[in-house]
Amino acid sequence: MKINGTPYRSVWLDEHDRWSVHIIDQTRLPWSVDILRLTHVREVAHAIRSMQVRGAPLIGAVAAYGLALGIHADSSTEAMERDAATLGATRPTAVNLRWALERMLTVLRNTRAADRERVAYAEARAIADEDAQQNEAIGIHGLPLIADVATRNPGRAVNILTHCNAGWLATVDWGTALSPIYKAHEAGHDVHVWVDETRPRNQGAALTAFELGKHGVKHTVIADNAGGHLMQHGQVDLVIVGADRVTRTGDAANKIGTYLKALAAHDNGVPFHVALPSSTIDWSIADGVRDIPIEERAAAEVTTVTGRAMDGGIATVRVTPSDSPAANPAFDVTPHRLITGLITERGLCPATQAGLGGLFPEYGSTVSAGHANSPILENHLARL
Ligand code: MRU
């Protein structure tokens, strides 16, 4: 995707040395576009933990490159296993991190130490390329959901609400939830996005607004609590969010606050879709509320806010009394009964075990009979 006309991915290999890795420092957006060069697995672990890179698919791809960087320095099995453990411990909720590291280790454990560096960079590159391709496919499959609303409402914009940042900055390219929006924009549909600010870290206000703006997509940033009101007044046609981990039954963990949006959408008959590449599916678990580990982040993310001060500098200010404690669960789980449908690289499906199993039959042994489609998804599928 583009920033001021220049195409970017959110992670890429240095084109001169062919071994170090570049990322966009997302803690500096939207105020400045700072490119960081990572040369050591320690720097990669820091980048993921401190959220210089974030978003489930992106941290998987960056961790894969991190392992390659580690092997560049030391290709022994001992070092490789240690580095994988370090990278895997950085963030607990997004399953893409574990998925990418396991994929790398599966290949590398069967590779001689002398060949590991070449194989590791090739596999990391494959993970990154596949992520970009899968996310573009999500856009292609999700586009008809938006086109359908546009056709039924000529002369007005399609209003889509999204939470957090599930755009190209959260993936290698295209994004998940934002990919159908970019495809609809490209196809000439009039789309308008309600962007939840997404406290405490404001990924919506800082990142989603940034990338939509750079791409020329109409959007309005709203306080996290505004969505329910807008839905009650017919101002939201669709909700599309991303996910950090989806169980085989279709429960979806995403940024804290997503569940409340799903409840409001359900109460107002607004279709609520979750967009994800298959690397976000955790086939080993069925009950998301019980089994998905929820990251607890620093209280300081709640007690402070960072932004551009009136003098032009970047400032962090405290917004709570200095002696008030704060809690910071970073994700919540939306049960599948509240999800109208899933948008994957292989198409749309109901948020059920049968739905996911139908699209991904190679995981069939973990999938048994599921539930009926939700009426809203049936409606959508009938129109496509
Ligand atoms: O804490 P973050 O910013 O890494 O959380 C990101 C999200 O919750 C995204 O919605 C999710 O990873 C989907 S990414 C396409």
Task: Spell out the CATH superfamily of the largest domain.
Answer: Translation initiation factor eif-2b, domain 2
By CATH, the topology of the largest domain is: Rossmann fold
Separation of termini? 27 Å
What ions, cofactors and ligands are bound? 5-S-methyl-1-O-phosphono-5-thio-D-ribulose
Number of strands: 18
Please provide a brief summary of the model.
With 384 residues, this protein is of the alpha/beta class.
Task: Give me some keywords for this one.
globular; alpha/beta; 4-stranded mixed beta sheet; 7-stranded mixed beta sheet; single chain; Rossmann fold; 384 residues; 2 domains; binds 5-S-methyl-1-O-phosphono-5-thio-D-ribulose
3D structure, described in words:
A hairpin with a 7-residue loop joins strand 3 (11-13) and strand 4 (21-24). The strands form 5 sheets. The protein has a 7-stranded mixed β-sheet, with helices on both faces. It is globular. It contains 13 helices and 18 strands. By secondary structure, it is of the alpha/beta class. The protein has 2 domains: 2-129, Four Helix Bundle (Hemerythrin (Met), subunit A) (Up-down Bundle); 141-367, Translation initiation factor eif-2b, domain 2 (Rossmann fold), CATH 3.40.50.10470. Helix 4 packs antiparallel against helix 5. 40% of the residues lie in helices and 18% in strands. The site of 5-S-methyl-1-O-phosphono-5-thio-D-ribulose has 18 residues, from helix 2 and strand 11. 5-S-methyl-1-O-phosphono-5-thio-D-ribulose is lined by residues 54-57, 94, 164, 166, 170-171, 175-176, 203, 242-244, 254-255, 330.
